[in-house]
Specification:
Blueprint lengths: L1 E6 L11 H8 L4 E6 L12 E2 L9 E2 L1 H11 L29 E11 L2 H8 L3 E5 L8 H7 L4 E6 L9 H12 L10 H5 L17 E2 L2 E2 L9 H19 L1 H6 L7 H9 L12
Parallel strand pairs: 1-2, 1-6, 5-6, 5-7
Antiparallel strand pairs: 3-4, 8-9
Helix pairs in contact: 2-4, 3-5
This protein binds 6-chloroguanine.
Amino acid sequence: MRVDIVSIFPEYFAPLDLSLIGKARANGTLRLAVHDLRTWTHDVHRTVDDTPYGGGPGMVMRPEPWGEALDALAPAAPTPGGTTPEGAIPDGAIPDGGSASPRLLVPTPAGRRFTQAMAHELAAESHLLFACGRYEGIDQRVLDHAATRMRVTEVSLGDYVLFGGEVAVLVILEAVTRLLPGVLGNAGSLDEESHAHGLLEAPMYTKPATWRGHDVPEVLRSGDHGRIARWRRDEALLRTAVRRPDMLAALPPESLDKRDRAALDRGGFQPPTGHVAK
Ligand code: 6GU
């Protein structure tokens, strides 16, 4: 996968040399380049922002440097089919197959919520281009113009506000990179982790069996793989019910069997019915 990041703070991305992301870069699984937006300014002060039209606090990123940056990193390809009357490509409408243009991702608290499902979606792309703005944002015309040439997704980590998109890009890239083939030593861990099946993961333990008076649950030391799997499933269900009732309610009812329902019932929880409460 190719990844380009444009930011006024390229130093923010130093951690991408470390650990498993660094390894994916070293072995070519991830071809990542970080670009300083000011490369595409031409005035002595290398200005990237200006005051907002209509007034209000803060500054807005000027369109000109962004336009040149995107021209350089996403060379104008023939517009793929499926455009809207305005010429814009609807978000996510074009599968990546053979398309030369990257998927443009713009971190903003006003974006579509980033989830594990979106991480999987992005891991299937061949080229991601991240445009990091400060939180007052990039002039909207940059995104509107880009949308005539490539798929544009404004993406948010959650309901809080960061200074800029840089940390969000680190988060998104970490979630995406670990899904790329060959990055995780043990791909089986992807199948068991939290969010893989709409449930939180059961708690994990290692040696010693007793630590500061706290014991590892007996079942995990029993060697009975059937009982262990059942215990982990029950714990995952109960944890999800307590911590993330929204996730429990969103489970397809048919994904819970009789034993799942019994476990929730013992814990005093109502299994999802598929009926939305009015
Ligand atoms: Cl993606 N960007 C910024 N600036 N703030 C955020 C965010 C992103 N997600 C949550 N807050």
